[in-house]
Amino acid sequence: MVLAGPKILSEADGDCVGIERVRGQSPVLLICEHASNALPAYFGDFGLPGEALASHIAWDPGALAVARGISEGLDATLVHQRFSRLIYDCNRPPSSPGAMPETSEIYAIPGNKDLTAEERLARTDALYVPFHDAIRGLIRDRRARAQDSIIVTIHSFTPVYHGRERAVELGMLHDEDSRFADLMLKAAAEAPLYRTERNEPYGPEDGVTHTLILHGLSNGLRNVMIEVRNDLIADDAGQGVMADYLKGLLQQSLDA
To answer: Which Pfam families match (predicted)?
Structure first.
């Protein structure tokens, strides 16, 4: 079956892009590509059990709450995707198999099996294009009013992946431009609340820096991708502590 764009997101589903503090005064521009595990009504349960839809394969648990805490603390604009990464992973280009993966860790994803070119294009047009167009528009508007932009993406990762435990608690990721990541790592070393490492548990070789390249490197803007181990932000208390800690690191890096 060929999907048409309007079928993917109905009027009841609403916009795929959430923008908060659109006129935030901080130079930090927060982006959360994997903020939600919600599925557009058209897709039903995507052929997956509830435990899979609640797990890290469908979203980055806790990431949006942490991003919102930072946004409030810094008065920073926040852009987030309102639908699950299972439909389209907005941190992957349309050409990447990871944009609409057929498997994720231990799960097969029936809703992504044997997609046609037309189906892939419809999802790209419905979710990826408007999401990144919204970010481009914000950067353009900020430039017009002489406001700097530092791209900061917020993610979370599972503490056990393919049966292997991950010791790292906080990752500062970057691609070719490490300017802001270097400052964040220096700030974290001076206040070592969490085990923090560079380009862990993922790095550029894993294809995770797409948003940084698209909006940071291509515009000459400083940027960093922050990865938080999701067991540390599984409840309100943990999310609050992490948001305050990251807000402090960001402010120190801005001051530097």
So the answer is: FGase
Report CA torsion sign: 15, 21, 25, 28. negative
Residue 94: asked if its preceding bond is cis (omega within 30°), the reply is: no
Q: How far apart are CA 140 and CA 64, in angstroms?
A: 24
28-32, strands of its sheet edge to edge: 17-20, 77-81, 28-32, 150-157, 223-229, 170-173, 196-198
> Residues in the chain, how many?
256
Burial class of residue 49 (count of CB atoms within 10 Å of its CB; 0-12, 13-18, 19+): exposed
CATH of domain 5-255: 3.40.630.40
Token code pair at residue 50: 């509830």
Q: Which residues of the chain have pLDDT under 50?
A: 1-6
**Alpha carbon of 7 to those of 4, 48, 133, 242: distances in Å?**
6, 20, 20, 38
Q: Which residue ranges make up each domain of the chain?
A: 5-255
CA distance 252 to 183: 8
Q: Give the whole-angstrom CA distance, residue 96 versus residue 112.
A: 13
